[in-house]
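cron nightly-structures :: item 1 of 1
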Amino acid sequence: RPLLKQERQQESVLTLTPGAVTVNADHDDAARDASPRRERHAPPDPSKQTRKAYAFDHVYDEFVTQAEVYSQFVAPFTAQFLAGYNVTLFAYGQTGTGKTFTVIGGDGYEQRGVVPRFVEDVFSFVQTEKQKHAEGVQAGTAPPSARTLTEAEAAEARPLLVESRVDSVGVTVLEVYAGVVHDLLKPAPLPYDG
């Protein structure tokens, strides 16, 4: 998600590189925050700073667009889903880190998250397949399962293995917050006022 105003004003302790995040930590941070006697803005002691690196499959900074996250990370899963595999997108992390922004999105069409983009791609694919089928029926080139046989053709036809396909899409968007599961696609009932 884009950084908040107060976050932009703070010095970053993270260094992002492809596939890794390095945290430049100050061992005195906890003591400085906990002790009222200590100067809160004292300069960090370089001897007490450490660097820890963590490896990830993908690392994105605050400047990445929703379209980039979708195309680089989610689109391959969309292709697997369209090939008939079950797909789960799971966002996990500390409150305020941008999970909802990444999954659902922000304001405006370009800010839509990975779920709206995924749904758009799935239904676009289904629509394209329907159009191909309709055009095949009209041109007489539809697969045998889509053709209507005359009585004579049906009488002469040998049993064939016929490919058939049923497009069915199911989507669930759940949020687990404070140990409670919320279905984000099913609105909560309105309070009865009467």
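cron nightly-structures :: done
The helical segments are 5-8, 29-34, 66-82, 99-103, 114-139, 151-156.
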